[in-house]
């Protein structure tokens, strides 16, 4: 292939590419838009799982003795922790917007710890449940749904810890430039909303 | 992915990325390089899929199973379907032409997320190789591209798991691409360019990407559950453990019916670009074309169970999905009538791009007619899972999409390389493909109606002659790629130089050199408000019926 | 002399209708019709072929005519007319296909109803929905639930039940009333047969092309298929769902006898020790 024009590209150096035409500066930052679109896709994965669960529940009779009253105390505590962690994250963003990085980091760390507490609670519940992964259809669906959500929580907590560590550098996040924290927050709220639906379907329905 | 950092002076460009032919093997961020990577990579997999089709048609030349073993035959048909769908058609019409054209059409220098774009492409070769290598390590999956349980749970696990991993990776690549297209089309447009001024391919890609983002994750989730059934012995889809196999079918077709539109909508868009240029007329009915794409997207998401009319579906469900499916014919029909109206009274250049597009119209109409027939439950109950269905969907995906891919290559090759393809070889390619294709797939409708099921290695002797005709057609199709390949290779080196705009086109990709510079235009990007503003001076033609021009304008 | 285009269009339209009718009625694309359902099915098929032929030939004609009539001569660099659309034309070709498709949907619903497809599978009317909701508590008595297929109509009188078991790679037919087990299906003409189908391993499908009926046989989800044969003969039973390496060889026969010879077959095959 022949190249007619001399290559005059800024090329890729660690993400600073594609700016030498001035109009590029005018494009908005689309990363949040991209993340939101990705979360729509992720939500569809959960939607597929929920649809499968509801269908199984509606049409597939379970063998006798396979219907359990799920223990409610621990899950309710867990749910409260996760919901509360959305508010702590929100608080972290508020501190960020005020420019109080120290307070922001504190709230971020608290959020991550609450996320991990949730995961710990989930683990405890797994060990105490009277059924295993392959016992019956309900058991399998229960573990698949909570496990897939747990992976999301795990990933979210990791993201929070990363932005928490990054926030230690002065000037990394400012009230104007804070994609990392904003992305982690959107993701965290998403994981939270999914959990509320999941909790309602698995435990309350 | 940083695209919005403040404009830096960038004194001397750093040449970290290769610039010659090597860049086509690199992690390039240039949307044009990525587009061509998709197209060439897709073509290589097309040859693999074609060779597999050759095995199938050779086996079916005789009524007994004598060419490959029965296990191998099932592996071959599974690989053929998976390769052709996930590694050839979807990547080429979406990733290939989408990446090459969409930034031009929205007046941008690149896609919204160039790095994600490169990642999406580079997920394809490894997963393709993984899929094909599964054949050599313990045998590929044998349960068809649909992987229905419990068959997919009971056939050898290794091949099935590799199949799942590969399809998950390809689905991920497809989702990343879809996110990129949505962001680029909706948010990355040149200031002053309105949505209703975009070329039709942008709308097609927007619709396609919406389907990709909404439907592909459901397939991913389903395949995760299926792999748990295989590896961890859960029982979601395994009736032996209390599971429900029909739920898998619902979830699978929730993706895989929209997948048909993921393959076909971009083709609709490409044809909408090609026809006006070679007919020297505006695209007829722009606004209805846009609405019909969106109608297809919405309807496409609610018709999946028409693949399951003979399955465990209650009567009311069969009725609803019949009506919904048949109604897709309405927006699809609008598009075809509009294309024919675009041709009408035009000044048609009978070149390869135009002829391939017209062949697409005829073949897709036939596939659409059999499609409406298949939507009718009583009709479907007889021909479901027979060669009628095989004939039908090859008319859609090959007679439809693959013909458009060829039309597009004849149309955009001058842009890719700066040289024209040879028209005589092109018409020879068209003639061979057209005859071969119809010879191969038209008789299969009769086979299905008369009792030959699909996915079989052996059949009743009464079907021998028709199967042999079909195999001859397949051979012609294989031969037809020879003039095409010669044409591409020779023209790339010695073809007539095309100049920037050999077709005198108005869409933005032609308003730059061929091939275009790295950031598409050397100066400012042109702002094209009327991508289809062809048309002779008033008075030359009878404009009595042409009251539409004012009606269809957005602005006076 | 110039013929007005309206007349030309009319003539072309009539020719298309005639062609469609001719293809639908005189070109035989289907195998023999050996069940009571088959002629009903063929009626729908003919309507579909007629409409399809008209549309396909019509559109092919217009495309080829355009390619010839409007082709660009060498050296011609003019554009065509700048027609960007026409609202009444758009409305026309939105409305007509919508009406045709709606008609087809209603018509095929009627055909399906006449083939028995809308008959309630589990015989408790609209209580079915409620049953779905309560199935979780209802336990194992639901094993007899029918998940799909064509149930015999209420009016079909004396029904011969046959239990069908599909397994890799064979069909086994069991006549519960006579306790006959057979590898091929024997049925009399003129009497409704109800196949109660179960699969042992993977999904199979029961298809008799000459009867125009097919139903998946799904492990864990019993299905039903009923038909009335009308022509004596020997017809293939085909498995139509990929079920493993020997899927292509999973075949059997349905032997349709006159009622007298069927009675003889039943008599000779009934096990002697019938308590």
Architecture overview:
- The complex is a heterotrimer of chains A (205), B (556) and C (275).
- Chain A is an all-alpha fold.
- Chain A has one domain (32-57, 75-204): Four Helix Bundle (Hemerythrin (Met), subunit A), CATH 1.20.120.80.
- Chain A is 68% helix and 0% strand.
- Chain A has five helices and no strands.
- The longest helix of chain A has 30 residues, at 137-166.
- Chain A is elongated.
- The model of chain A is unreliable at 1-25 (pLDDT under 50).
- With 556 residues, chain B is an all-alpha fold.
- Helices cover 64% and strands 0% of the residues of chain B.
- The two termini of chain B are 40 Å apart.
- In chain B, helix 13 (387-417) runs antiparallel to helix 14 (423-449) and helix 14 (423-449) runs antiparallel to helix 15.
- Chain B has 16 helices and no strands.
- Mean pLDDT of chain B is 90; it is low at 1-15 and 538-556.
- Chain C folds into two domains: 5-69 and 88-114; 145-269, Immunoglobulin-like.
- In chain C, strands 1-9-6-2-3-4 form a six-stranded mixed sheet, with no helix packed on it. A five-stranded mixed sheet of chain C has the order 5-11-10-7-8.
- Chain C is an alpha/beta fold.
- In chain C, helix 2 (37-69) packs antiparallel against helix 3 (87-114).
- Classes of the chains: A mainly alpha (205), B mainly alpha (556), C alpha/beta (275).
- Chains in contact: A-B, A-C, B-C.
- At the B-C interface, helix 2, helix 8, helix 9, helix 10 and helix 11 of B face helix 2, helix 3, strand 8 and strand 10 of C.
How would you sum up this structure in a few lines?
Chain A is an all-alpha fold. Chain A has helices at residues 31-59, 73-98, 101-128, 137-166, 179-204.
Which keywords apply here?
heterotrimer, B: 556 residues, mainly alpha, 16 helices, disordered C terminus, C: 275 residues, alpha/beta, Immunoglobulin-like, six-stranded mixed sheet, five-stranded mixed sheet
Mean pLDDT of chain C comes to: 86
- Helix and strand content put the structural class of chain C at alpha/beta
Biggest beta-sheet profile of chain C: 6 strands, mixed
Under CATH at level 1, the class of the largest domain in chain C stands as: Mainly Beta
Oligomerization state of this entry?
heterotrimer
Distance between the termini of chain B: 40 Å
The appropriate CATH architecture of chain B is Up-down Bundle
Amino-to-carboxy terminus distance of chain C: 90 Å
Tell me the Rg of chain C in angstroms: 26 Å
Count helical runs of chain C: 5
CATH architecture of the largest domain in chain C: Sandwich
| Name of the CATH homologous superfamily of the largest domain in chain C | Cupredoxins -  blue copper proteins
Greatest interface: B-C, 110 and 86 residues
**CATH fold node name of the largest domain in chain C:** Immunoglobulin-like
CATH class type of chain B:
Mainly Alpha
- Total number of domains of chain B: 1
Question: Which term fits the overall shape of chain C?
Answer: elongated
- Stretches of chain C where pLDDT is under 50 for at least 5 consecutive residues are 124-141
CATH topology of chain B: Cytochrome C Oxidase, Chain A
Strand content of chain C: 15-25%
Order of helices and strands of chain B: HHHHHHHHHHHHHHHH
